[in-house]
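User: Please fill in residues for this 341-position structure.
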């Protein structure tokens, strides 16, 4: 009798248990989603109410802005001007010069390309023009003589095999398990990429709501770990020889940088100081007309012992991102905020 009673009640009990389990799972899912949303609201509110005061002692930003375009022309620039820009910064002895951009193609105004635009040129003139130094070679020579960092980008396809790339600096240890992974890498042309003092990944996807709150300290491409852009600039600023993971901590020499389980660093944002922002146009032409916040005079020690980031800041070419403190800002400022310490 007892067995019969138990058997009869079994479907009801199973159904009840299933409902309870489903409810628990849905509750856990809602709690997870709501919890993450609530955490973001708190994080963003804290950032807006207590923005970080960013020091100008360690970092400066050079913007390729409308003034720069009015002096040089539209993007992409001939690499001659990028070489001059780099020289002007490098002569002040900065700790690092980071390009928040990639140069994946040869300069369109290299002499051989230029000569090809004019088929009516006499053959002797064509030969003479073709023997001139290329814009890329001039830029490469300048990059090699300064503490420069070129950007790279992790891709799923249409890039370069990571195993064929220089890995400098070396990333030691085991990155966190959820570190971003990619199969291939987009780099600048070898003539430029091969001579830079450092290389770093520019990947930095926003959160699911489109807000950037963190940057990856390292990125895995293929089977190798490469430093993120901000982490590499911080390493050069600290004078460390390598980066090393120890659990969820990235070691930059004696400096310890805590990371999230996905290997990303949460950034405390603030308004990047206007007095640490400069127009590339002024470095190329110090007689340019001054107006606006990014167009201030550049003194002989403006960049000395600092990390200098070069980024885009013009309509149609700028890397625009949303952060907890600004719905629209230049991506280079995100990297600069981390590089500032």
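Assistant: Residues filled in for all 341 positions:
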């Amino acid at each position: 009798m007892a067995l019969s009673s138990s058997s009869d009640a079994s479907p009801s009990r199973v159904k009840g248990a299933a409902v309870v389990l489903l409810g628990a799972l849905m509750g856990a899912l809602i709690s997870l989603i709501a919890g993450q949303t609530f955490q973001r609201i708190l994080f963003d509110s804290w950032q807006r109410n207590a923005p970080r005061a960013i020091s100008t002692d360690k970092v400066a930003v050079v913007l390729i802005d409308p003034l720069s375009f009015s002096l040089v022309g539209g993007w992409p620039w001939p690499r001659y001007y990028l070489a001059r820009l780099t020289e002007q910064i490098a002569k002040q002895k900065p700790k690092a010069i980071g390009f928040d951009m990639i140069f994946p193609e040869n300069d369109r105004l290299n002499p051989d390309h230029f000569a090809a635009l004019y088929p009516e040129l006499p053959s002797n003139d064509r030969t003479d023009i073709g023997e001139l130094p290329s814009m890329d070679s001039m830029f490469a020579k300048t990059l090699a003589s300064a503490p420069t960092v070129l950007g790279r980008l992790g891709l799923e396809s249409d890039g370069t095999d990571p195993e064929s790339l220089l890995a400098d600096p070396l990333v030691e240890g085991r990155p966190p398990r959820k570190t971003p992974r990619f199969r291939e890498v987009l780099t600048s042309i070898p003539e430029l990429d091969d001579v830079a003092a450092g290389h770093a990944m520019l990947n930095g996807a926003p959160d699911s709501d489109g807000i950037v709150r963190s940057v990856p300290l390292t990125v895995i491409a293929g089977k190798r770990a490469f430093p993120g852009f901000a982490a590499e600039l911080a390493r050069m600023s600290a004078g460390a020889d390598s980066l090393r993971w120890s659990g969820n901590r990235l070691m930059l020499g004696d400096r310890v940088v805590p990371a999230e389980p996905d290997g990303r660093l949460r950034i405390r944002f603030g308004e990047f100081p206007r007095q640490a922002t400069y127009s590339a146009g002024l470095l190329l032409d110090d007689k340019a007309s001054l107006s606006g916040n990014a167009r201030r005079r550049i003194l002989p020690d403006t960049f000395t012992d600092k990390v200098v980031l070069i980024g885009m800041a013009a309509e149609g070419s700028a890397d625009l991102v949303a952060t907890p403190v600004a719905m629209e800002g230049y991506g280079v400022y995100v990297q600069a905020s981390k590089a500032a310490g």
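For context: Residues 1-50 form one domain.
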